[in-house]
């Protein structure tokens, strides 16, 4: 099978130019598995590449197969693969680090400067009939987890990483800013971590309705750009200051609200895209520390890179 033209793939050739193409079936290298893909999600980053041809410094310069939220079945294994066999159902962790840099050796492989991420130029993604991936970044799916659910482990990993970094724990009161897909997985993760109450903000009433159905204890439809005023509304509805804030909208007033909502100690997890500039953030933090004597713990969570989340999602 390997090498034959029988691998239908969704290929981005330029902004607005998506094509279905037959490509050769790849052959797994040492340490890799060949997967028959079963479910691949469409991420906001896929849409961004399709419409703009770039995200920040990652620019499409040659045709690229799309897709990074994925699951599939092992078809063949390369030399040296011991823990997977043909027929195994797996979810794919799409970011593959170098394994040799100081960050990788320290266990923080999400910070690897040589990370190769599916469907991030120049690396091809997994929206194809067949795809090869390192075996140690494929995770067996329990029988009760479907292929679709396996593909959704990738966006869920962002929420798991954000809640870990923010310190969400049993009894926490949590603010989530933004009720889009990432905000919703942060909401679900915070509740799974034992948060007593989660309040979520958004401009869109429809998104907030979805958030309530998924377990949000309080919702706030944002109608002001006054961050201080909004922080007071949040505290009043929640009944206390949130212990942790998780910002998922990327809007400057919303990030400022997540900072101002705490008087003295701030635990803030930012889920932001690769393109985000944090210049303005320094002003808000400096002002808050000066006027409130606030101590800040801020974690910037690149939407692409989480660390050691897949086993936690599948087996805890």
Would you give an account of this structure?
By secondary structure, the chain is of the alpha/beta class. It folds into two domains: 5-151, Quinone Oxidoreductase, Chain A, domain 1, CATH 3.90.180; 160-302, NAD(P)-binding Rossmann-like Domain (Rossmann fold, 3-Layer(aba) Sandwich), CATH 3.40.50. Helices cover 30% and strands 30% of the residues. It is built from ten helices and 18 strands. The protein has helices spanning 44-52, 102-105, 147-151, 153-166, 181-192, 205-213, 227-238, 252-260, 279-292, 310-315; strands at 5-14, 17-24, 32-41, 54-55, 58-59, 64-65, 69-77, 89-92, 95-96, 116-117, 130-134, 138-140, 173-177, 197-202, 218-221, 244-247, 265-272, 295-302. The strands form five sheets. Strands 15-14-13-16-17-18 form a six-stranded parallel sheet, with helices on both faces. A five-stranded antiparallel sheet has the order 11-3-7-8-12. Strand 1 (5-14) and strand 2 (17-24) form a beta hairpin. The chain is globular, with a radius of gyration of 21 Å. The two termini are 38 Å apart. Mean pLDDT is 89; it is low at 288-295. Residues 30-143 form the Alcohol dehydrogenase-like N-terminal domain. This is Sorbitol dehydrogenase.
């Amino acid at each position: 099978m390997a090498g034959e033209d029988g691998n239908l793939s969704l290929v981005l050739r330029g902004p607005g130019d998506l094509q279905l193409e037959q490509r050769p079936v790849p052959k797994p290298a040492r340490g890799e598995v060949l997967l028959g893909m079963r479910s691949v999600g469409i991420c906001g980053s896929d849409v961004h590449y399709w419409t703009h041809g770039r995200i920040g410094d990652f620019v499409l310069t040659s045709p690229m197969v799309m897709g990074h939220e994925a699951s599939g079945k092992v078809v063949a294994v390369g030399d040296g693969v011991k823990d997977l066999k043909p027929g195994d159902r797996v979810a794919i962790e799409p970011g593959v680090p170098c394994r040799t840099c100081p960050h990788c050796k320290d266990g923080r492989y999400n910070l690897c400067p040589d990370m190769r991420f599916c469907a991030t130029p120049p690396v091809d993604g997994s929206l194809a009939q067949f795809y090869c991936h390192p075996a140690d970044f494929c995770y067996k799916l329990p029988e009760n987890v479907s292929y679709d659910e396996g593909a959704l482990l990738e966006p869920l990993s962002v929420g798991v990483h954000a809640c870990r970094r923010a310190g969400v724990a049993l009894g926490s009161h949590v603010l989530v800013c933004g009720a889009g897909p990432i905000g919703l997985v942060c909401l679900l993760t915070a509740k799974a971590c034992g948060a007593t109450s989660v309040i979520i903000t958004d401009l869109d009433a429809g998104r907030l309705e979805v958030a309530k159905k998924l377990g949000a204890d309080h919702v706030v439809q944002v109608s002001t750009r006054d961050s201080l005023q909004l922080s007071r509304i949040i505290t009043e509805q929640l009944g206390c200051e949130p212990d942790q804030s998780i910002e998922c909208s990327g809007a400057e007033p919303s990030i400022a609200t997540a900072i101002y909502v705490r008087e003295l100690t701030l635990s803030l997890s930012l889920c932001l895209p690769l393109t985000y500039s944090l210049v303005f953030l320094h002003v808000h933090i400096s002002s808050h520390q000066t006027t409130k004597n606030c101590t800040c713990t801020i974690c910037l969570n690149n939407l692409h890179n989480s660390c050691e989340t897949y086993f936690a999602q599948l087996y805890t």
